Predict the structure.
Amino acid sequence: MPGFGLKDGARRSIAENAPKLFFVSIAYILIVTVMSELKLRLPGTIAAYDLYIERLYAGEIPSPVFFYSNLRSSGLALAAVLLLFEPVISVGYMHYCMNIRRGKGGDYKDIFEGFLFFAKVVLIRVITAILIFLWSLLFIFPGIAAFYRYRQAYYILLDAPEKSALQCIRESGRLMDGNKLNLFLLDLSFAGWFILDFVVVVLFSYILPFTLPIISIWLTPYLGVTRAAFYDAVIETMVV
């Protein structure tokens, strides 16, 4: 599968839908950033984090469950809400990128489209997280393979909302049979962008009292539209 061809097509789609695409992406980035900042400021977060670090220094590898179990009840409640909302917002942006890729255009409301399938999105996140964790117990590579095996589940749901979470997960496994390495290499081709984004954010953090993800304004839609193009390419291959 020609990954660079997918990226070329994504850049064309982005150019055709600019500047609105960037404004929608900025809105999405702001929502995600606010949610991340809220998680850092949950009641009891600092104490829970300190305890987590102490366990690491003691030679243990505590699970995320350990961290959340040490939050105050109010912080735990907010953490649960954020954990539920994160994949839903992400799926909404994936839907927006799918529309851009398919020449359907899009709007700000697409970011919240995931709430139409709230229960199924959450189920997919929970089930795939459990499956990836179980495969990871065997070794790191089976865990990585499982991560890529279920990557198309959300796209399948967006294309066919009537399907159950389990159906989407199973179909993702079939779609990714023989395509996991292709998607991995496609992700790897963005490594330079991620490094540049990180460096710019760190540099700006020394100048400004807040982070300024300038590179993300380009990288977020570029990555989103390219991944949507990958899904469409796999679907076309399966049909043929």
